[in-house]
Specification:
574 residues; alpha+beta; DNA Primase, Chain A; DNA primase DNAg catalytic core, N-terminal domain; Dna Topoisomerase Vi A Subunit, Chain: A, domain 2; 5 domains; 5-stranded antiparallel sheet; 5-stranded mixed sheet; 27 helices
Length: 574
């Protein structure tokens, strides 16, 4: 949908180091930049970025690619979305994409944006007067309502549906966006999902509207309804408020995690940022990975009732798995929003400053839940804590916690260590990339230098035949290069990267990230090419030798072919 020349121009205008620096801290390391990989847990930096080649590669987990690929992976967006983000950064305007030309996801994003605007404008209109008074009564000011783009869905059965149909969107895509519900056995085929509710738009980290939460204005049930999962919205992969707070997360190195929409909104209004909420679920592995991209510390804030504690504890062992430091704040009030409105910011700040270590909090919680004066109670405490202990990434921290548990319930720590050892899952945190040898190494090194050096490519590309390669990856890349040459198009590693799948992007980035001081690149490329050709000739010679030895009356054609191959091999070997 976007011309390749525009894609190439955008990539040339932006610096991959500059883009990646917005997500992780890069340090100069020779001709590359180095960092801790944002895509897997590691202690030693193995993530490399090369500005001149416009690529990145992690030698720990094997991930790699160009600036588009990086943005797609770290932000969880499509290629077209990555192009739009980088085009804006580069100051390049993109052509309009018609509704008919939109992908399904693109259409749903547009539908959600139109709906969010409609709900917000309705809230600020005469129709939304009651809803606006409700929000003001909960302590929200005009700036906060505007910042979070809060809205109101009118009581009508078809207000959003009719609005979107008038704007040219199909009923199929409106249904896929989750904004309408099919009605059976009536004259009405579809009706609006959200009616007479406060609307909370849910955004992606880039600010795209993914879906909505809707709250009633009274005590009727259900209090909240939410968008169903759609092609653009999976609640376990997103965090409410992240779009507004991700910059603050990187700056401060921590994030407050609360339970609901209003908790996020009120905390933000009172100046307590960064703050996010897990969209009504226990934290998922995808949400934890999302948090890990930005911070290494999480402060959990929830009320003291046991149901709230149990709900909050579920999923937070995943934070330990990722090596994230966890603190806990328990509130005397129902939730952070109520506490801040009833008290003041300084009281809330004092509670945060006194936040308790998560492991200590869990130990206290389970000790209070069971009778540790009995053997049965002690067994239950250890049983509840075992999954958590086994996922503590630091051995020293794990040992210290086991010692603390043993002291508190008065048992020998060796018994706990034994139980942990039996139950500990084997976790592989690094992807081992086998070192290539022999012919495979030759082929991939040739690909590397053909891509990196334009003069070498122009000189030798017409001598290269993909049939002489054994490696699937190399055959594919050579085909792409030769096809681009025949069309007279731009050839560089970043362009080739766009045309590869994720696995091949990893292979190419691992080749290109390495730098070599080469005295004569032409000679090197020629030698590599000759060795590959000689290997191919040797296979043909071996085949002909077998065929010739089978027959007493040798076909002269076979002999001539055999002699020609021997001469060709001799010439290449000189």
């Amino acid at each position: 949908m976007i011309d390749q020349t525009i894609i190439d121009e955008i990539r040339e205008r932006v610096d991959i180091v500059d883009v990646i620096s917005n997500f992780i801290s890069l340090k100069k390391a020779g001709s590359n930049y180095k960092a801790i990989c944002p895509f897997h847990v590691e202690k030693t930096a193995s993530f490399m970025v090369n500005s001149s080649k416009q690529i990145y590669h992690c030698f720990g987990c094997g991930v790699g690619g160009n600036v588009y690929n990086f943005l797609m992976k770290i932000e969880g967006i499509s290629f077209i979305e990555a192009v739009k983000v980088l085009a804006e950064k580069a100051g390049i305007s993109l052509p309009e994409i018609s509704k008919k030309g939109l992908s399904e996801k693109g259409a749903i994003y547009e539908i959600n944006e139109q709906a969010a605007t409609f709900y917000h404008e309705t809230l600020l209109s005469q129709i939304g007067g009651r809803a606006l008074r409700y929000l003001k009564g909960r302590g929200l000011n005009d700036q906060t309502i505007e910042r979070f783009r809060l809205g109101y869905a009118p009581p009508s059965w078809n207000s959003v549906k009719d609005m979107l149909l008038k704007k040219g969107y199909s009923i199929e895509n409106i249904l896929k966006a989750g904004l309408i519900v099919p009605k059976e056995k009536t004259n009405i085929q579809y009706y609006d999902r959200f009616r007479d509710r406060i609307i909370f738009p849910i955004f992606s980290p880039q600010g795209k509207v993914l879906g909505f939460g809707g709250r009633v204005l009274d005590d009727s049930l259900p209090k909240y309804i939410n968008s169903p999962e759609t092609p653009v919205y999976i609640k376990g992969q997103n965090l409410y408020g992240l779009n507004l707070t991700k910059v603050s997360m990187r700056e401060k190195g921590y994030v407050l995690v609360v339970e609901g929409y209003l908790d996020v909104i009120i905390c933000s209004q009172y100046g307590f940022e960064p703050v996010v909420a897990p969209l009504g679920t226990a934290l998922t592995r995808d949400q934890v990975k999302l948090i890990k991209r930005y911070v290494d510390q999480v402060i959990l804030i929830f009320d003291q009732d046991s149901a709230g504690v149990n709900a909050t504890l579920r999923g937070f062992d995943l934070l330990l798995e990722q090596g994230i430091d966890i603190k806990v704040v328990t509130l005397p009030e129902k939730d952070p929003a109520d506490f801040l409105i009833k008290h003041d910011g300084s009281s809330f700040r004092n509670l945060i400053q006194k936040a308790e270590d998560f492991l200590t909090f869990q130990l206290k919680f389970y000790i209070s839940s069971f009778d540790i004066t009995t053997t049965e109670g002690k067994v239950k405490v250890v049983k509840e804590l075992l999954p958590i202990i086994s996922k503590i990434s630091s051995p020293i921290r794990q040992h210290d916690f086991i010692k603390k548990v043993a002291e508190r319930i008065d048992v020998d720590e060796r018994w706990i260590i034994r139980d942990v050892s039996k139950g500990r899952p084997v976790i592989t945190s690094r992807h081992i990339i086998q070192k290539e040898k022999g012919g495979l190494k030759l082929e991939r090194m040739l690909i590397k230098f053909i891509l990196e050096d334009e003069e070498a490519r122009d000189r030798f590309i017409h001598q290269i035949r993909k049939e002489e390669f054994e490696d699937r990856f190399c055959k594919h890349v050579i085909s792409l290069i030769k096809d681009l040459v025949s069309k007279g198009e731009i050839i560089n590693s970043a362009h080739i990267m766009d045309l590869l799948d994720e696995e091949d992007q990893r292979i190419l980035s691992s080749l290109l990230i390495e730098s070599y001081a080469i005295e004569d690149k032409f000679k090197l490329v020629k030698d590599l090419l000759n060795k590959i050709k000689i290997r191919d000739i040797d296979k043909k010679i071996s085949y002909l030798q077998k065929e010739i030895s089978k027959n007493k009356d040798v076909d002269p054609t076979l002999l001539r072919e055999y002699e020609g191959l021997v001469r060709e091999k001799t010439d290449l070997s000189l």
